[in-house]
Amino acid sequence: MKKFWNVTRWFILVGLVLVMVLMLSTPKRPSPRIGGGLQKQLAGQFEQKLEHLEAAKQEGVHGQTESFTAEEVNAGIQDMTANAETVMGTGRAEDAEVKIVGVNFIGDEAVGQFIVPRYGKDIYITMKAHLSAKDGYANLELTSAKIGNLDVPVSMINPRLQQRLAEPQQKERLKLPEFIADMRVEHGQLVFVEK
After folding, report:
1. 192 phi and psi, to 5 degrees?
2. d(CA 125, CA 157)
3. What domain of life (predicted)?
4. Residues with Cβ within 8 Å of residue 85, at least 6 apart in sequence
5. Of 147, 133, 142, which Cα lies nearest the Cα of 175?
6. How big is the chain by its Cα radius of gyration, in Å?
7. DSSP calls for the chain
């Protein structure tokens, strides 16, 4: 019996080490990096499409749609966060500041990758979700999640994510422009629908 427990202990130790290696490993980026010149051009396209939707709303046209590629969205995010390093920090010491690595759109799902610094190490979190609009805010329905390269059950992450997104400071970051009625991912692109 003692030999059984010794062998079992080693299997558990090896399993824990494997889990830690998978959690701390750097996963593949969901989207390629964008170079400086192309980034400005794509950010401009992102902004022009938003302006088109806003103009349609002001002219009284309803239901206009615009589709955004992952590259345009990533460029827009880079442009918006150029001066601000953090996107989800709450200012509380116990909460790490989350940084966006990139997003991609596959089929009808959005894939987002984020970095959460913990204990001096960058932890990569990759999430897939269905996007929609609800009461003027972006809504995420999580479908899968990874920490590093380790698949994690959605039920383990979703409650904490939804709690965090419901915090007033975070909720304001999810507020959609007033001229946006709905959003979704369709055929690998983000689609905004004007009111």
Report:
1. -105, 135
2. 10
3. Bacteria
4. 97, 99
5. 133
6. 20
7. -HHHHHHHHHHHHHHHHHHHHHHHSPPPPSS----HHHHHHHHHHHHHHHHHHHHHHHTT--S-EEEE-HHHHHHHHHHHTSS-S-SS--S-TTSPPPEEEEEEEETTEEEEEEEEEETTEEEEEEEEEEEEEETTEEEEEEEEEEETTEEE-HHHHHHHHHHHHHSHHHHHHTBPPTTEEEEEEETTEEEEEE-
Q: Which residues pair with 192 in a beta bridge?
A: 66, 183
Per-residue confidence band for 192, with pLDDT thresholds at 50, 70 and 90: very high
Does 10 have pLDDT greater than 60?
A: yes
Residue type present at position 129: A
> In this predicted structure, which of 57-71, 83-97, 114-128, 149-163 has the lowest mean pLDDT?
83-97
Which residues are 158's β-sheet partners?
Answer: none
The rounded Cα 146 to chain-centroid distance in angstroms is: 12
